[in-house]
Amino acid sequence: MFESEMLIGGEWVPGTGDVLQVQNPATEETIGTITNATTEEIDRAIHAARKAFPAWAGLSPFKRAELLHKAGELIDQRKDDIARAMTTEQGKPLNEARGEVSKLAQTLHFYAEEGVRVHGEIIPNESNAYQSLVVREPIGVVAAISPWNYPAELIGWKIGGALAAGCTIVVKPPELTPFSPLAIARALHDAGIPAGVVNMVTGKGSSVGQHLVESPLVDKVAFTGSGAVGLRIQQSSLTVKKLSLELGGNCPMIVTATADLDAAVKGAARRSFRNMGQICIAINRIYVAESVYEPFLSKLAAAADALTIDNGLDDPGADLGAMASAEPLGKTKAHLADALQKGARLMAGGRPPEGEKFRKGFFFRPTVLADCTHEMQVMTEETFGPLVGVAPFRTLSEAVEKANDTPYGLASYAYTKHMDEMRYISSRLDYGNVAINNVDAGIINAPYGGRKQSGVGYEHGREGMLEYFNFKHVRICFDEPEDA
Ligand code: NAD
């Protein structure tokens, strides 16, 4: 059974609210409980963050960097334990969970370094007697709210950027996967980050998350999650505050006639099905040039069928584990049924894996559908499951038009060997991220964010840290010294 205390003002407290059960999605067994923080406990965490803010903001960025580096090192040392907690609560294979924890450690090291490079500007004035300084100051108290698909990384981007900038933070981890975030909070605490700088309160989004968003003592909300909740947050904030919203997507891939077909298939299989498709930048739909459509389809179906699936603790190196809960599995089945009923052709998957060990748990085979149209949900809505729809195209302009034809704008992909096609596609795709001849659309030192209904603001990179600053313009009038 996993630990469930909350971190408030540097103290680990058990919490007095309702108890919520947490399940292992591969076995449906209860693995621990958390408490739904009461409003008094949430307010105590916010007050602790407020109290800690002036000293943390006033600390030298070099000192903050030292502490962030130390936290990164501790997280790396505790990688196996944190990863085991993550696989047990989320379902992804253990090796993948280890990789995610390593990336979290790298994020903290990255922001430790980035924090010491914050600088302002000196702006010219009409008269040389004046000087305008533009300085950056930390915003204040941040509420960080994140989903269950990447329980470590998504919290790490927020903690890294906020702490490096000099902000303090109250984190509400996802209720499905609270234990790996709590282990991360423990590492930050043990690294010597002062009391109140990082707080973590557990519980439901509708009560704990909502209370954080509504608090007038919170200066910024950093949210990753669904579009519906993101919109609710934007609409329900009672005071003016800065928001960054990293929301869902329905990400397209274009495969042109000049593409390296095997590389495109490899990329498509990886980015459609990794983490059981529960990735905001998962490929949901693929548009393939007519001349290579059937060969691409049969290769992708074979690649999907070759992926191994298992309980991620039993087989750490499996390609895929369980889905995180019954909800995304139900949506995957609903999108599949909708597409089949509207004429899609099933090329791979479409059923749970066979065997006694899959009798319990939320498992499903990676599924490929051919001949999909935009009348089908899979082509226009986020499935968040191991399902991808494929459709042929005649001209590149038709492919780009279809790729842009959803309310989303998070990530997009293309495979082509032709420079002219690369430029045509990348300049016309209305997405925050475009990956060409690869499917890793985000790297820690480049900005990452969505357009349209996929969100506002950025994480990753320098831009991800600048979200936690206010600008201040200081305009000074100088006189000549009397004895000059
Ligand atoms: P969700 O929106 O249901 O929940 C996300 C978080 O918000 C959870 O911690 C939840 O408790 C909390 N929450 C729920 N209601 C709230 C409220 N009223 N006020 C404040 N907080 C509230 O999302 P989910 O189902 O956990 O995650 C899947 C979604 O996240 C997908 O849409 C996916 O695309 C998106 N996502 C986006 C990115 C990105 O970087 N753009 C990354 C990962 C996931």
Strands, total number = 22
CATH superfamily of the largest domain: Aldehyde Dehydrogenase, Chain A, domain 1
Q: Count the helices. How many? A: 15
Please bin the fraction of helical residues: 25-40%
Describe the fold and architecture:
By secondary structure, the protein is an alpha/beta fold. It folds into two domains: 6-247 and 454-472, Aldehyde Dehydrogenase, Chain A, domain 1 (3-Layer(aba) Sandwich); 251-436, Aldehyde Dehydrogenase, Chain A, domain 2 (3-Layer(aba) Sandwich), CATH 3.40.309. The protein is 39% helix and 22% strand. It has helices spanning 39-58, 61-77, 79-90, 94-115, 153-165, 179-190, 205-214, 227-236, 261-273, 293-306, 326-341, 377-380, 396-403, 419-428, 461-466, and strands at residues 6-8, 11-13, 19-24, 29-35, 121-123, 130-138, 141-145, 168-172, 198-200, 220-224, 242-246, 251-255, 283-289, 345-348, 367-370, 387-393, 408-409, 411-415, 433-436, 451-452, 455-456, 469-477. Helix 9 links the parallel strand 12 (251-255) and strand 13. The mean pLDDT is 97. This is Aldehyde dehydrogenase family protein. Belongs to the aldehyde dehydrogenase family. GO terms for molecular function: oxidoreductase activity, acting on the aldehyde or oxo group of donors, NAD or NADP as acceptor. Residues 12-474 form the Aldehyde dehydrogenase domain. It comes from Jiella pacifica.
